[in-house]
Write a structure and sequence with these properties.
single chain, alpha/beta, six-stranded antiparallel barrel, 11 helices, binds pyridoxal-5'-phosphate
Length: about 375
């Protein structure tokens, strides 16, 4: 007899809606990307937002086995999750941390980004010199960091930082490295030049982490001026997605995540009848409608209503009507014998067809990053 009070006794295969993550694929993507760089480059693996929805702990463990010692997350909580799972390398928290969480960052040996001088003072008041820290430098992103247009001031603040914290680095973030054309190149070159100017002023501090490149930066701007360390903060390309529609990933890099739901039922809908909330879809002819076990509460965007499609048995089935919270309907009139229990591919391959997160993002007016980050925690992750 199954005992429902003992979790492991209950066989639960999450057939409703699940994401399948090919960890070997992430490993391959890492190798291919790294081989596209000069030999002495090091990778800081960006595993924020639960590894872009792929499972931060699982991805970090896999990369640690490949010799990666440097990780980046967005929040202290994400850093703590890595530590608790046994990740022992450097973990940089890329975003702002409130002083109330600074002690936790210390206890777990995380390296905290300092976003400006006021933040430095707040943080150091709480934790003294115990906190490992890196200063962000704003070279044009206009998001966080010391004002990189004033290298003298940056230098002074960073030197003070070396007294307030266990300072081990500085970094900047590129805003246009994934764009094509002269304008983007000009902006990026200027950002890198500004950062190098700051880095050279504090060269005597011998900070081990001086870095500026994201996935796109590593592809197009790895020929760095003197003073900047050879690092790539590798995020999206690790997961096999492109930084933008203009970016071409090295050959062989492929998406690591597939996303599936099930057909729960199939029904005939007569010409003129409506489907779903608001009857947003009206059948133009007699048709067959399949209901799927996924909705916007699973992270499948409602913006896909009436626009995107899924794959069933290798064929495209267009979404009809509005995506509901937990279910949605697709038109399977032209598909051969779709039945309850069939698997629908939301992202991934089926026969000759494929839907990528980048494509789904395109259709719904966003980017692949948001699509994979948006797959909600109630969607089970399976690792293959
Ligand atoms: C998310 C992030 C990255 C990774 O960017 P990708 O485009 O995913 O490679 C790098 N640096 C910072 C500061 C980030 O916030």
């Amino acid at each position: 007899m199954l005992d429902p009070t003992r979790e492991r006794d209950v066989a639960f295969a999450s057939g409703r809606c699940y994401a399948e993550i090919d960890i070997g694929r992430i490993e391959k993507n890492f190798r291919i990307y790294k081989n596209s760089l000069q030999k002495d480059f090091r990778i800081i693996a960006v595993v924020k937002a639960d590894g872009y929805g792929h499972g931060g702990v699982q991805v970090a463990r896999c990369l640690e086995q490949l010799g990666v010692n440097d990780f980046a997350v967005a929040t202290v909580e994400e850093g703590i999750a890595l530590r608790r799972s046994g990740i022992s390398g450097e973990i940089l928290v890329l975003g702002y941390t409130s002083p109330v969480d600074a002690e936790a960052a210390c206890v777990y040996g995380l390296t905290q980004t300092v976003v400006d001088e006021a933040h430095a003072i707040e943080l150091s008041a709480v934790v003294g010199k115990k906190l490992k820290a890196q200063y962000a430098v704003d070279t044009g992103m206009r998001r966080i960091g010391l004002d990189g247009s004033c290298p003298e001031l940056c230098e002074r603040t960073i030197r003070r930082g070396a007294e307030l914290f266990r300072l081990n680095g500085i970094f900047t973030h590129l805003s246009c490295a994934d764009g094509v054309g002269e304008k983007n190149k000009h902006i990026t070159d200027r950002q890198i030049e500004r950062f190098a100017a700051v880095a050279r002023r504090v060269e005597d501090l011998s900070l081990p982490y001086v870095h500026c490149l994201n996935s796109a930066g590593g592809l197009y701007y790895s020929d760095l001026p003197r003073g900047i360390g050879k690092f790539v903060r590798l995020g999206i390309a690790l997961y096999g997605l492109a930084p933008s529609v203009d970016t071409v990933l090295p050959k062989g890099i492929e998406p690591a995540l597939s996303w599936y739901a099930a057909v729960s039922s199939v029904r005939a809908v007569k010409k003129g009848e409506g489907v779903g909330y608001g009857s947003a879809f009206i059948a133009k002819r007699d048709c067959l409608i399949a209901t799927l076990t996924v909705g916007y509460a699973d992270g499948y965007s409602r913006a896909a209503s009436g626009r995107a499609y899924v794959l069933i048995n290798g064929f495209r089935a267009p979404i009809v009507g509005n995506v509901c919270m937990d279910q949605m309907m697709v038109d399977v009139t032209l598909l051969p014998h779709v039945r309850a229990g069939d698997r629908a591919v939301l992202i991934g391959r089926s026969g000759e067809e494929a839907i990528t997160a980048d494509l789904l993002g395109n259709i719904t007016g966003t980017i692949g990053y948001e699509v994979v980050c948006g797959i909600s925690p109630r969607v089970a992750r399976k690792y293959i």
